[in-house]
Design goal:
Number of strands: 10
Protein name: Phospholipase/carboxylesterase/thioesterase domain-containing protein
CATH superfamily: Alpha/Beta hydrolase fold, catalytic domain
Organism: Deinandra increscens subsp. villosa
Pfam families: Abhydrolase_2
Distance between the termini: 24 Å
Mean pLDDT: 91
Order of helices and strands: EEEHEEEHEHEHHEHEH
Low-confidence stretches: 7-16
Shape: globular
Number of helices: 7
Strand order of the largest sheet: 1-10-9-8-7-3-4-2
Helix content: 25-40%
Radius of gyration: 17 Å
CATH architecture: 3-Layer(aba) Sandwich
Strand content: 15-25%
Largest sheet: 8 strands, mixed
Number of domains: 1
GO molecular function, one term: hydrolase activity
CATH topology: Rossmann fold
């Protein structure tokens, strides 16, 4: 796993419950369309929450698809309903809401299935959205969702900001179950960024997730940290994401 630090202070499936996703927003490429990335917002946000930032990135050849999460009760918030990609009791729950994760990962995959064959595909997100992005990376490696249904998307890049990997308990065994899964895990580029003073998703949780993925075989994972950064983003981090995506996708 590649570590770097900044010193700046600053397929379809049936689920057991109905899940209704919100509105999807799209930021079209200004240049030649060479890549499409689904960007997933954080808990309590919506798809448009990140479009203004994405529109300003120096990545003219990327199309951004920004869906909105369903409104659901979240156990960690005392059952309060809010937009969330899955339910959770704790960020350190190794089991978690597998149904909710599969539903959201399936929704993301469905958004990408209609993209042109010559376009590279990726998933990115912030906070809980980053968790779905990382979970999608594990689905790509194993070739299936948590429920065993086939995962249909060939991901070329995954970006996670201030997030964590849910349902990680058996990841090493699942990736190590076949040579093909191990090969896909090792070759998938992942950028995982986290602030050292994050008071929502603690730094140690993000770091543990990165270490878990790397030890499970995701060897093309870069874990970048930012001193003084809490649970939000800064220009330095956004610039790092842009540079990494440009190098990874040629975007």
């Amino acid at each position: 796993m590649s570590y770097s630090s900044s010193n700046r202070d600053s397929g379809s499936r049936n689920v057991r419950r109905n899940v209704e996703f919100g509105r999807t927003f799209v930021v079209m490429p200004k240049g030649v369309h060479t890549a499409t990335i689904v960007w997933l917002h954080g808990i309590g946000e919506k798809g448009s929450s990140w479009t203004q930032i994405l529109e300003t990135l120096p990545l003219p050849n990327i199309k951004w698809i920004c869906p909105s999460a369903p409104t659901r009760q979240v156990t960690a918030f005392g059952g309060y309903p809010c937009s969330a990609w899955f339910n959770m009791a704790s960020m350190e729950d190794d089991y978690g809401d597998l149904d909710g994760l599969d539903a959201s990962a399936t929704h993301v995959a469905n958004l990408l299935t209609s993209e042109p064959d010559d376009v590279k595909l990726g998933v990115a997100g912030f906070s809980m959205g980053a968790s779905v992005a990382l979970y999608s990376a594990t689905c790509r490696a194993t070739g299936q969702y948590g429920n065993g249904n086939r995962y249909p998307i060939n991901l070329s890049a995954v970006v996670a900001l201030s997030g964590w990997l849910p349902c990680s308990r058996s990841l090493r065994n699942r990736v190590g179950a076949s040579q093909e899964a191990a090969r896909r895990a090792a070759s998938l580029p992942i950028l995982h960024c986290h602030g050292r003073v994050d008071d929502v998703v603690e730094y140690k949780i993000g770091e543990k997730s990165a270490q878990t993925m790397y030890s499970a075989g995701f060897q093309n994972l870069t874990f970048r940290t930012y001193n003084g950064l809490g649970h939000y983003t800064i220009i330095e981090e956004i610039n790092d994401v842009s540079s990494w995506l440009n190098a990874c996708l040629g975007a």
